[in-house]
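Honest question from a wet-lab person: if I give you the sequences of every part of a complex, can you actually get the arrangement of the whole thing, not just the pieces? Trying it with mine:
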Amino acid sequence: MATNTLNLPEQEYMLPGNRACAGCSVGIVFRHMSKALDGKAIFVVPASCFTVLCGMYPTASVQVPVMNSVFPGTAACASGIAASLKKQGRDDLTVVAMAGDGGTADIGMQGLSGAAERNANVFFVCYDNEAYMNTGTQRSSLTPLGAKTTTTPAKGKMQFAKDLPAIVEAHDIPYIATASPGYPGDLYDKVCTARGISGTRFMHINAPCPPGWQFPTAETVAMAQLAVETGAFILFEIMDGKFQLTGKSLALADKDNRQPVRKFIELQSRFGVLDEETLARLQERVDERWRKAVARHRAEE
Amino acid sequence: MTVDTQSVSVITGNRAAAEAARLARVDVVAAYPITPQSPVVETLSKYIETGVLDAEFITVESEHSAMGVCIGAATSGSRVFTASSANGLAYMCEQLSWAAGSRLPIVMGCANRAMSAPWSVLNDQQDAMSQRDQGWIQLYCRNNQEILDTFLQGFRIAEQVKLPVMVCYDGFILSHTVMPVDIPEQEQVDAYLPPYSVHTILDPEEPRNVNPVTLANPRLNGDGVLCHGYMEFRYLMEQAHKEALDMIVVADEEFEACFGRRWGGLLWSYQLEDAEVVLLAAGSLAGEATISADMLRSEGIRAGVLGLRAYRPFPAAAVADALKEAGLVVVFDKSLSYGYDGPIRRDVQAALFEHRVMPEVHGYIAGLGGRDIKARELVDAARDSITWAEQGKGPKPTDWINLQL
Amino acid sequence: MGQTRHCKQKTAMSWPCVGEAGRTGDWRTLRPVVDPEKCVAARKGKIVCMQCWMFCPDNVISRTAPPEIDMEYCKGCGVCVQVCPSQAIEMRPEHAEDVAASTKEEASCDR
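Yes, you can. This is the full assembly:
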């Protein structure tokens, strides 16, 4: 049975009174990830918003072991811990590399690619808030087309976000999934699945950011759900090469009732007043990726 | 020194480094190829694949990741090893700082090579010198036996003072040149360097956050204890370097007790007792200077050599003490601190000034990018310096040996 | 500033505690208030719904009937209001004097 609100474990690994911004989706993500891991994990964290959430010396806000890493070094550091645990004969711990979009898709890409190619026994999680939020919202390669950041201040970003899961999939690793804080049960189940697999596992998590995306803090979950309901973010998993839509995305595919992207975009001030042409390009891109995902799901069902 | 000829092999410096890692029973090796270091990790990968060494070998995609793996593995309780050179070492830069700041007992080899641009794969010591302020202990070797022995000592030092150790040896001159090396038995090494006892600070049983953001000023922890600010951690690291000055000597003395040979601890000397003129260098160049000293003595000049084994921590007091009778010190650097000549020369000068030892000190830059240095050229340099000093010409500008400009 | 001679650490390592960033309740300008007449869990007196608990980004809502919100640390983001299917939670203005009373100097952390 899929995990729902009432059968989620009660045990918490994140303590109240932490340093994350109000309404930060990473808190929701970490709570349900750590529940699924039963706290039996070592987290490796590069410079990122999650560093802030974990707290400043000498106090910490999370009840799992965390090792900070240099910005590009997350996957390598995690590989080293995994190798060390293997040498010591410890197989009860999951090594989780937890990086933002910059630490994964930009400066962390080489290290991630190396670890994935070696099939290092690491669970790499990218919580994607779509810009360098920790340093004040500069563009990353996962910032969407049209979004204003402090380094794309006037016209908005001129390029589409790159397709991160596709890049990772090219490494032929045993498990890839996407997840959303809007659907904690789906996220929880996927982390449980990943935990039971050895080798490199990858998860791409959509992480709405109230100050960076410029929407009211109360709307974090609504924003995460709209990303999925419009198809701008698709929930799926790829197990040993087999692609399957999951949760809300699967339901949307069955009923064919996606919302227009405009509904997701218009709530975020970072898009400003988007011109119709850019909005059309975004919609077209979402539609194209959605069609491919649904077709692949049906072909591999 | 007595050598059991049964255990002597004729091997390269790189092979000596690899044998040392094997004998140290390292748990995790991570490395990326770069000339002239590559044969170290090729040898180790063979040992690990064929079961000679029970360790994990991680074939990383860059030197940055090599040190990243070492940091992760060392933090989670393993004895680790890597090696690099030149651009590879430079690419590790931020990780070197992270390793030292984390106080991890990582031991790495640096087969010294010139820094680009332009490309050069040949020897000088610019690579290691460029990283000297990252917090690592740096030890320099003069021959292949010293390479093997210094790596073993390096683990003892690193694990005692909780600082990473870089064992530097000249690329090609030592890395690819065969010499007789006494490879000790495993039992002997185990007695000197016991197998590593696993201790991890990354455990869900007692979760903690390692190396979080640390503020400038002290801050209270949950128990009301005022904990260090960033600066206190830096002070403790500097204290560890001062401790290492003793530990480097102790590790060498204990090594002698186990293996019957020692390398001088922080420094070594040759014909220094009555020397008026002292040639000073680090690595194989210092070894070569002993031939030059003999040549000078045959010409009636009382010359000796002071070889620098530890460069960081810098043995300032020991250097000053060793040079207190010298009239002239001629320092040969195989690298530059651009805009301020040779780094060893400047450090020596500062040490002497601090201890009020005031011989004349001259500096020479030699052997950059693999340019050959002959013992005769060091003799010529020493003679030029003697003449300069005799004529009382005052401060002598740094000279470049065999510069064809 | 004070001396740190009782700190035995050679490297920076932190142990978990509640209120790592201090009393984050001070960040609020609006406070969530649960209406027990509308909250399904409160009305039924058992663990049902729990959307507010599940989605709380700060782990300040209890998994109880009725759910209780830890006002020491609730940052007042309002996510619970938005996810509540019964519209049982609403945000009300904080009273400035309450905030001032709860502010404590230098309390970095509660165990």
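Two things worth pointing out. Residues 161 and 240 of chain B are 6 Å apart (CA to CA). The radius of gyration of chain B is 21 Å.
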